[in-house]
Design brief:
UCP009120_prtse; 12 strands; 267 residues
């Protein structure tokens, strides 16, 4: 299982992912799920993935291949239509980049789905693409296995893929566009840590990429291992804070009245 999430904030983007990959309980490995592309000085993209690892790696390889092609040829991922000439280097808008990545993903899945289906294995992968092209706003997109996509919004400034449910409560309570990048990064790590506590298939090292809007370069890129002092301190402080708030929750009426335990059970 995998857990990746991104925050679209007024100040920029924060994207974070675990790096645990498993094919059953007896085969657990570590692969990076956060990939940075900067094909030119006027653009930067961060791509995260959840799903079939082989599909993801081929998607990444095809993106890199298209970037290596001579510019007069254009990408060969999808040879049909005007859109086939768009890749990460010549997209003018971030949604065009999301559309391109979605088409690459669909192409890879289409090539391998029949054989994998016979083995009962899914070829699907889900992706989050974040970044910015100069003179355009920064943004964050979730790309479905079918190639379609949608963007984060001020009302829902976070996107998740993979094992999403355990890390969602903190995001629902705290995530908002006005968060600073630093607080956004802390929130992402809290969400990852909460998920890893409830699902052993998600775990460190955690990777975090912080992007300040209009900078066209990553501000920080962190890798937090299980024994990282920063991760341990943040996790310990969050847990202690939750326990402290829990102990201070308002009491029931019967507690204030000093009723005996037997009276409480009858009530």
């Amino acid at each position: 299982m995998t857990y990746c999430l991104g925050l679209a904030l007024d100040e920029g983007l924060v994207m974070a992912a675990d790096s645990r990959t498993n094919a059953g309980v007896d085969y657990v490995t570590t692969f990076s799920k956060l990939h940075v592309f900067q094909p030119a000085a006027d653009r930067i993209f961060v791509l995260m993935s959840a799903g079939n690892l082989a599909t993801t790696q081929e998607v990444l390889n095809r993106i890199r291949r298209d970037l290596d092609l001579p510019r007069d040829r254009g990408p060969i991922t999808d040879p049909t239509g005007e859109r086939s000439r768009i890749d990460l280097l010549n997209a003018r808008y971030l949604f065009e980049a999301a559309d391109y990545v979605g088409r690459v993903s669909v192409g890879v899945q289409r090539d391998h789905a029949p054989a994998l289906h016979q083995s009962g294995v899914s070829a699907e992968t889900t992706l989050i693409l974040g970044g910015q092209i100069a003179d355009q706003p920064h943004g964050l997109y979730l790309i479905y296995p079918q190639g379609n996509y949608f963007a984060a919004s001020p009302q829902t400034p976070y996107l998740q893929i993979g094992e999403t449910k355990y890390g969602k409560p903190a995001l629902d309570r705290i995530a908002e566009p006005s968060l600073s990048l630093e607080n956004g990064a802390r929130l992402c790590v809290v969400s990852l840590d909460a998920t890893s506590r409830s699902n052993v298939t998600v775990g460190p090292p955690f990777e975090v990429a912080i992007y300040a809007k209009d900078s066209l370069t990553l501000t920080h890129r962190l890798k937090l291992t299980a024994d990282s002092p920063a991760l341990r301190a943040l996790s310990s402080s969050w847990n202690a804070g939750i326990r402290g708030v829990f102990e201070e929750l308002p009491r029931f009426d019967w507690e204030a009245m000093g009723e005996a335990p037997a009276q409480r059970r009858q009530a």
